[in-house]
Write a structure and sequence with these properties.
Keywords: Cytoplasm, Fatty acid biosynthesis, Fatty acid metabolism, Lipid biosynthesis, Lipid metabolism, Magnesium, Metal-binding, Transferase. This is Holo-[acyl-carrier-protein] synthase. This protein is α+β, with helices and mostly antiparallel strands. The protein has one domain: Ribosomal Protein L22, Chain A. The chain has five helices and five strands; from the N terminus they run βααααββαββ. The strands form two sheets. It has a three-stranded antiparallel beta sheet with strand order 1-5-4. β4 and β5 form a beta hairpin. α1 crosses α4 and α3 packs antiparallel against α4. The C terminus is likely disordered.
């Protein structure tokens, strides 16, 4: 079952201007160290940050709150599997909100997709609830997400 859907569109040039103006103050407030290392290795640094910004906004919307109620930007972090697939991890308040919205007997799975076409970066986040398998039962309908 779908628990939440969120989307966001970010202007790469706006993020680039913000990076130029505020530098590390902006980076350290919004992005985890892993996100920063990833972005700084890319030729399109601003585009990489913009996609992650959009993903955090989209995730907060999928959680049903937007960026309020004590949520921290760093409570939501985007990384990538070896295949390149983006994944969203939540900690702190965002993880607490996710636990609250997940029905008993289910596990929450966060799906995220990112794209960009200069000057735009876009993200979609879907939060899905999958039934937990009974002890000793194999849940073939809902395979486990890929391991990182």
């Amino acid at each position: 079952m779908i628990l939440g859907i969120g989307t966001d569109l970010a202007n790469i040039e706006r993020i680039e201007r913000t990076l130029d103006r505020f530098g590390d103050r902006f980076r350290n407030r919004v992005f985890t160290e892993i996100e920063q290392r990833k972005a700084e290795r890319r030729s399109d640094t601003a585009g990489t940050y913009a996609k992650r910004w959009a993903a955090k906004e989209a995730c907060s919307k999928a959680l049903g709150t937007g960026l309020r109620m004590g949520i921290s930007w760093k409570d939501m972090a985007v990384s990538n599997l070896r295949s390149g697939q983006p994944v969203m991890q939540v900690t702190g308040w965002a993880a607490e909100r996710l636990r609250e919205m997940t029905p008993e007997g289910y596990e929450a799975i966060i799906h995220v997709t990112l794209t960009d076409d200069h000057p735009w970066a876009q993200a979609f986040v879907v939060i899905e609830a999958r039934p937990l398998a009974e002890v000793g039962e194999v849940n073939l309908t809902y395979p486990a997400p890929p391991r990182m």
